[in-house]
Amino acid sequence: TGPKVYRKMKASEQKNRKVFGVPLLQSVQRSGKPLPPSILRAMEYLKAECLDQ
């Protein structure tokens, strides 16, 4: 099979996106960060611990 072609999401579809059961927009409004704090902490951990491998 060939590579998958990803279609651009409409604004209305993006509003309905949820991360851990919380709408992404609500998470951004609460924390002011682009992703929920738990995901950002996980990314920082991986960056610090796994970058050399």
TrEMBL record:
<protein>
    <submittedName>
        <fullName>Rho GTPase-activating protein 7-like isoform X1</fullName>
    </submittedName>
</protein>
<dbReference type="InterPro" id="IPR008936">
    <property type="entry name" value="Rho_GTPase_activation_prot"/>
</dbReference>
<dbReference type="GO" id="GO:0005096">
    <property type="term" value="F:GTPase activator activity"/>
</dbReference>
<dbReference type="GO" id="GO:0035023">
    <property type="term" value="P:regulation of Rho protein signal transduction"/>
</dbReference>
<dbReference type="GO" id="GO:0030036">
    <property type="term" value="P:actin cytoskeleton organization"/>
</dbReference>
